[in-house]
């Protein structure tokens, strides 16, 4: 229940630092780039600021080599931890396999310093396009569609149920001008389904053989018009954006 006394306060802006308890066996190991079981790195990355920022393969590739390595270590570790949390055999998210249509959103805590480090990532969300065949209302003939999809979503175990997932998700919806019903969700976990029911009232869907979830509401909500020019204008109006969004805005200008 939301009123549980042991539950930490929900966050609405830049998340406060979450202490991670170090296990004794980790203390003796040589200093790794990302501490085992965490998404913390001693280095900083230009543009990877406290709060949520958006990244693409292109914006990551344009970082100076050292920062690119830091970014790759953080994103790859986030992918591994997310896969572990979902009991998946392989990571869905890694910098090497990011395609041009995909965006990775990272949520960093308030101690993150893009100039001097450290960088402490609390959560990650990855979106992308997929070509899907969906049986609408249990119809035997599927319809082909290419929805924007939520492909991966993870908040570190030490930071769950504090509103960080909601912060990431809201940033993505604003950034890509999407309605939560007009999306497909790749194999959503029980926690994610509970999240969608709680925050967006999304509950009803038909099971699909491809394991994507398209809510019944998808077909009741009109898609939002989103031209590149409109997106660029919004970006220049000073919303909190990361390098990826800035790069996209520049390309569209
Ligand atoms: N059990 C049930 N529901 C949960 C749980 C849980 N352990 N954790 C979060 N939720 C849902 C609930 O609706 C919760 O509301 P409540 O606390 O009032 O019950 C709500 O999410 C909380 O919202 P936030 O605090 O904004 O969400 P959070 O920061 O915890 O992020 C997320 C949600 C990403 C699903 C997180 O719980 C997580 O990383 N889980 C493990 C990995 C996972 O399952 N990821 C989704 C995979 S599917 C995919 O990526 C397409």
Automatic annotation (TrEMBL):
Pfam family for this entry, one: Acetyltransf_16
GO terms under cellular component: microtubule
Region (Disordered): 1-45
Gene3D superfamilies, A to Z: 3.40.630.30
Keyword check for Hydrolase: no
Comp. bias regions, Basic and acidic residues: 9-28
GO molecular function annotation: tubulin N-acetyltransferase activity
Keyword Acyltransferase on entry: yes
Record keywords, A-Z: Acyltransferase, Transferase
InterPro entries reported for this sequence: Atat, GNAT_ATAT
Domain N-acetyltransferase: 39-219
HAMAP family attached to this UniProt entry: mec17
Name of the protein in its database record: N-acetyltransferase domain-containing protein
